[in-house]
Amino acid sequence: MPRGPQAAASTRAAVTPGPDTDVAVLGAGIVGLAVALEVQRRGRRVALIAPDDPRGRASFGNAGVVSLGSILPVAGPGLVGRLPRYLLGRDPAVRIRPGALPAAAPWAARFLRLCNEAAWRQAARALAPLVAASLAAHEALAADLGCAHRIRRHGYLRVWREEGGLGGAALEREILREHGVATEALSADAIAEIEPHLARRYACGLLATDSASIHTPGDLLDRMERAFLERGGTRLRAPVRALAATTDGVTLYVSAGECRAAHAVVAAGARSAPLALPAGDRIPLAAERGYHREVALAGNATLTRPVHDAAGGFVMAPMDGRIRVTSGVELARPDDPPDHAQIHGAFADAGQSLPFAPESAGEIWMGSRPSTPDSLPVIGVATKTPRVVYAFGHGHIGLSTGPVTGRLVADLLDGKRPDVPLDPFSPRRFREAATR
Ligand SMILES: Cc1cc2nc3c(=O)[nH]c(=O)nc-3n(C[C@H](O)[C@H](O)[C@H](O)COP(=O)(O)OP(=O)(O)OC[C@H]3O[C@@H](n4cnc5c(N)ncnc54)[C@H](O)[C@@H]3O)c2cc1C
Question: Can you name the CATH fold of 75-116+149-213+285-371?
Answer without folding.
Answer: D-Amino Acid Oxidase; Chain A, domain 2 (3.30.9)
